[in-house]
Write a structure and sequence with these properties.
156 residues; alpha+beta; three-stranded antiparallel β-sheet; 7 strands; flat
Amino acid sequence: MRLPSLWSRDRDDPFAALHREVERVFEDFGRGWPSARALIGTAGAGASPNVEIHETDTGLEVSAELPGVDEKDVEVTLSENVLTIKGEKRSEHEEKQNGRVFSERSYGSFQRSFALPFEVDASKVTATFDKGVLKVALPKSPEQEKKTRRIEVKSG
């Protein structure tokens, strides 16, 4: 009696087929993309910028670290209560040595979107960019402030 090979057993097993497909997707995922370092410019950083969101009594404060990104290459939009931060990093380096020219270029883009937990006053949203840090202030809408009521918690 001949035993079936491992390959033929896996071929008939739907879980093995799913496992192979998932492995293939992860292997193919990064092919042809610039490295995360080229996208953001810092070793170990992911393709998306680090973002910190802080809620205050009057709204939200969002800070995004964008080292190596120029202010003109950053776009901030607010649409239907979703804040989106998009950007592109461009880096060009040219070095001349012993009559030879070495040139290196890297490009990469990122996008992060955040569903906001409350209605904001879109007319008062501000964004500033300083030393590679984007700060966005999102004040609550007047209607939202009326809907919010702080309830004092008392001990028993």
